[in-house]
Amino acid sequence: MSQPIARTKVNLHPVASPTRQSPQAQQLVAKAGFNLHPKAARNPTDRRWTIGSSTTAPDPRSNPIRAPSTSTYTLPMPASSNLSNDVATTPKKLPKSKRGQHPLGINTGFNSHPLPMQEANESIYIHIQGNAAALRWNSVSVETQKQYGTPFRRYTELITAMGTNLTMTEIPMAFYRTNPTMTFHETVIVGYMTYLRSNRNCSPNTIMSYVSGLLFYLKNMNVDTSFVADSRAIAEAKKGIFQLWRAQPENNAADSARVPFSADMIIRTIAKCLTSGSRKDLALGAAMKFGLTFLARASEYLKSNETTRHHHITGKDVAFEVSLPSGTTKFVSASKVKHYPFSAVRKLVVTPRDSKNDPDGNGHRFPYVPKPRSQFPNDLYCIVQSMYECACSLQPGDDDPFFSCPIENWHLTADDMSETLKKGARLYGFNEQRFAPHSLRIAGASAMAANGAPNWLIQLAGRWRTDQFLKYIRLSTEAFQQSITAISSCTVFNSDDIRMWNAGVDLIHAEKF
Q1: Residue 229 three-state SS
Q2: pLDDT tens, 408-443?
Q3: Whether 209 and 342 share a structural domain
Q4: Selected residue with higher pLDDT from 492 and 435
Q5: Is residue 485 part of a domain?
Q6: Residue 480: what pLDDT?
Q7: How many alpha carbons fall within 13 Å on the CB side of residue 209?
Q8: Which residue from 195, 273, 245, 250 is spatially nearest to 435, judged by alpha carbons?
Q9: Any residues with CB less than 8 A from the CB of 357 and at least 6 apart, and which?
Q10: Same domain for 161 and 79?
Q11: Whether pTM exceeds 0.85
């Protein structure tokens, strides 16, 4: 097991005098191969001390040189060693390891031991720096860390070809011989995007996602990434990638967007593609209705095998209010509702306690009441009855995923749901690749909009923090016809309205009329 790594900072600016550095700092710098002052260099061609100097021209005889970056250079050290030990330098290539591992091999576990307060020595700084690195790394979920692993692997492939290291502090002389118009850092980022597009055939959206993952890794290596947001060259490169991709006839974002999967499609899929006697097929049918009714993200009701932090609802998150013979009511969990007939169920309450945009785990509570078919003839299903039948058949425990069956030892996954939705899409002759669990969320938002629900209600029901949900809504035929009628009407919006809203503006030359 690799030792945890802490960090110390040594001032390497060329104006720094060696006498101002502590003996320990000078020893560290000497071991790392740096010089604190140009006059102190044993080799006159060694200009690696120029970290932080933007005015010193590179010596053409030096290969490689250090990148002008900040006035300090972070030196990683084993936390268990003292300052006299050798300094671990930044590797050129990430060693083979599990996905989601820190690129520098730093121990990302938080040190919960008290800070050593007895005296001001290196121990307290090592403790703080180690925990700072752990907190920064764990600022995103474990699942996201693993997802960011692929962008970082692509980055290591590129920097190996470019002849630099992970933190871009070694600049090959070949870079300067090309008379660059961008800084070296900008060149690496733009090169990363073009590598993903040309060599890896990634779409623009995938490239932007990879860039976000790369920036996360760079920040964890103490690289100042503020230049990415400030760089005009990088911003124009992003726009250019989108423009060139869109100019190709086969690249239409609308052709790859997810398509809604509506309630009538769910009912037909259950009838044609699922088996009535199968517990798993019963769960699939109920899960489709749940995803549509609750505008649920897949992670909110389907357990993922790729993460240690789960958002899915469990047996205790689904409760039923039932009537008792005494005339009172009480709430029972999904694992106990089988002891009561459906006629006794008065309400279903679902509480998703965790989601990707709810890091504090405050949860959301949604109550539903049974809908008698006689009063709601147009409703294709009753979500309360579907969840009741699912709970009675699957009998999940309080801590089990709700859409799981401990008796048969399985739980529904996103792949199970995608396969079922694709089967349903084929019934209609649709392109099955356009359908995924997210299709249910889109359909739910579209149905609410078609029914005249205000945007704030759709946003609340779907647990969106922003107006991002607006891009998911698809207009129904009825809503579109109402819009067309309003457009062509002479009373809804006419010249009188234009004249009123432009009062006081020299809109027309009255003398001509």
Answers
A1: helix
A2: 999 999 999 999 999 999 999 888 888 899 999 988
A3: no
A4: 435
A5: no
A6: 60
A7: 11
A8: 273
A9: 463, 464, 465
A10: yes
A11: no
The stretch 272-299 carries a mean pLDDT of 92
Q: Does 359 sit behind a cis peptide bond, omega within 30 degrees of 0 on the bond before it? A: no
Give the mean pLDDT of the chain: 74
Sequence-ordered list of residues with C-beta below 8 angstroms from that of 269, at least 6 positions apart, any chain:
285, 288, 420, 421, 423, 424, 427
Residues 73 and 188 in one domain: yes
Residue 284 burial (CB count, 10 A): 24
Phi, psi dihedrals of residue 495, rounded to the nearest 5°: -65, -30
Residues 365-395 as b/e (b if ≥16 CB within 10 A, e otherwise) read: ebeeebeeeeeeeeeebbbbbbbbbbbbebb
The reply to whether 361 and 241 lie within a common domain is no
- Please report the beta strands in 147-290, taking only residues with DSSP state E, as ranges in sequence order: 170-171
123-152 residue pLDDT tens: 888 888 888 888 888 887 776 777 788 899
pLDDT at 8: 38
CB-based burial label for 276 (10 Å; 0-12, 13-18, 19+) = exposed
Q: Would residue 68 count as lying in a domain?
A: yes
Higher per-residue pLDDT: 90 or 298: 298
Strands 329-333 and 345-350: unpaired
Q: Return d(Cα 330, Cα 345) in angstroms, integer.
A: 10
Residues 237 and 274 in one domain: no
Pair 340, 213 in one domain: no
> What would the mean pLDDT of 175-182 be, rounded to a whole number?
91
Non-local (6+) Cβ contacts of 167 within 8 A are 90, 218, 221, 222, 223
- Whole-angstrom Cα distance, residue 68 to residue 181? 16
Cα–Cα distances (Å) from 493 to 27, 67, 354, 481, in that order, read: 79, 62, 45, 16
Same domain, 46 and 109: yes
If one counts the domains in the chain, the total is: 2
Neighbour count for residue 291 (Cβ, 10 Å): 26
Q: What's the pLDDT at 192?
A: 96
Is the pLDDT score of 444 beyond 70? yes
Give the CATH number, domain containing residue 330.
1.10.443.10
Q: Are 70 and 51 in contact (CB under 8 A)?
A: yes
Higher pLDDT, 310 or 510: 310
Same domain? For 167 and 202 the reply is: yes
3-state percent breakdown (helix, strand, coil) of the chain, nearest 5: 45, 10, 45
Residue 204 falls inside a structural domain: yes
Instruction: Identify whether the C-beta of residue 78 lies closer than 8 Å to the C-beta of residue 4.
Output: yes
Instruction: Show the domain range for 200.
Output: 5-247
499 assigned to some structural domain = no
**Helices vs strands, H then E, count in the chain:** 18, 10
Beta-carbon contacts of 71 under 8 Å, excluding residues fewer than 6 positions away, are: 11, 12, 13, 51, 52
The residue to which tokens 């700072």 are assigned: 132
